[in-house]
């Protein structure tokens, strides 16, 4: 480690203390010999850097936005889900924090090894089931096991969230998640060893007037193969990725097939409403442009070319004689 550098004022104060007898050179040496000790708890080993935890937070912020849209559409009520915190703790500590009766979705994420847990607070889970069955979305505050009907309804609802989980992870890894089991007692789950570090993403969720937490538990063993991809450097490289030539060619080909509105402006005229209402077949309207002036050719509402009128195969036509470059604005006659 680099040594601390004393400022000039600190050096003067130290020399003054030695000269006046307030501190001896021997005392100063003894202070230097005292080692600074920092307590380290091996049971709470921090195996993820702050940068990696932030990357996981970004993934689940995106996932939370997708869940908000999905649940709002499925339940036809106001749903809001946001990431509250991200922490790394021992798996044993996470299990102790989970209520005895809660909704635990155990998710397999091949090709990654290991399983993650999506824990849904009972208030939120039962409010969702109540909405599916046509209720107002109030929590039932049940503490017993789920019935077969409730289990089936929740399984169907939460299985469809895995499509959004796959999309949220697509920037880091191609996973194919599926719901392995749905459990209510955390004591029956063993997705990691007691001392293994897990990342817990906590999300605030509200369904109508009911609120609760959704917690995602991700073991270290699951993330280990892709840990290098969780760095900010990887994210910046991914965002700055240059398109392949074949992708550019395909994009250009698709753009060429797009249809656009092309209009030719012969000129402008101003008439009264009375004259407009009395127009009849054969009437002539005087325009503000001369017959020998070029015509404005517009793409959408923006002028892009100038041309001249004519005929082609006995049909009216216009010939492009020049183009308007970007930034030149409307052509000045």
From TrEMBL:
Pfam families: FliM (PF02154), FliMN_C (PF01052). Residues 254-324 form the Flagellar motor switch protein FliN-like C-terminal domain. GO terms for biological process: bacterial-type flagellum-dependent swarming motility; positive chemotaxis. It is found in: Bacterial flagellum basal body; Cell membrane. Its main location: other. GO terms for cellular component: bacterial-type flagellum basal body; plasma membrane. It is a peripheral membrane protein. Signal peptide: none annotated. NCBIfam families: fliM_switch. PANTHER family: FLAGELLAR MOTOR SWITCH PROTEIN FLIM, YOP PROTEINS TRANSLOCATION PROTEIN Q. Belongs to the FliM family. This is Flagellar motor switch protein FliM. It comes from Lederbergia citri.
């Amino acid at each position: 480690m680099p040594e601390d550098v004393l400022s000039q004022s600190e050096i003067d104060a130290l020399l003054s203390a030695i000269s006046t007898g307030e501190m001896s050179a021997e005392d100063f040496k003894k202070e230097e010999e005292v080692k600074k000790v920092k307590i380290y708890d091996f049971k709470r080993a921090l195996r993820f850097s702050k940068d990696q935890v932030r990357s996981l937070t970004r993934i689940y912020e995106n996932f939370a936005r997708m869940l908000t849209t999905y649940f709002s559409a499925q339940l036809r009520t106001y749903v809001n889900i946001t990431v509250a915190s991200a922490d790394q703790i021992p798996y044993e500590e996470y299990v102790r924090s989970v209520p005895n009766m809660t909704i635990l979705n155990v998710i397999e994420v091949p090709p990654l090894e290991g399983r993650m847990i999506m824990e849904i607070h009972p208030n939120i889970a039962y409010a969702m089931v109540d909405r599916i069955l046509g209720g107002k979305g109030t929590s039932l505050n049940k503490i017993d096991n789920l019935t077969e009907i409730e289990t089936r309804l929740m399984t169907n609802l939460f299985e469809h969230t895995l499509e959004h989980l796959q999309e949220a992870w697509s920037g880091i890894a191609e996973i194919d998640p599926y719901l392995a089991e749905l459990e209510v007692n955390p004591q029956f789950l063993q997705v990691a060893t007691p001392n293994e570090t897990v990342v817990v993403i906590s999300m605030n969720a509200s369904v109508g007037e009911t609120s609760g937490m959704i917690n995602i538990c991700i073991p270290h063993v699951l993330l280990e193969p892709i840990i290098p991809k969780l760095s900010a450097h990887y994210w910046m490289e991914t965002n700055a990725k240059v398109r392949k030539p074949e992708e550019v060619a395909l994009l250009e080909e698709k753009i060429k097939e797009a249809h656009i509105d092309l209009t030719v402006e012969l000129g402008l005229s101003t008439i009264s409403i009375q004259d407009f209402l009395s127009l009849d077949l054969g009437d002539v309207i005087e325009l503000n442009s001369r017959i020998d002036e070029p015509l404005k050719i517009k793409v959408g509402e923006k002028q892009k070319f100038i041309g001249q009128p004519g005929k082609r195969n006995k049909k009216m036509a216009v010939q492009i004689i020049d183009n308007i470059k970007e930034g030149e604005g409307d052509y000045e006659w």
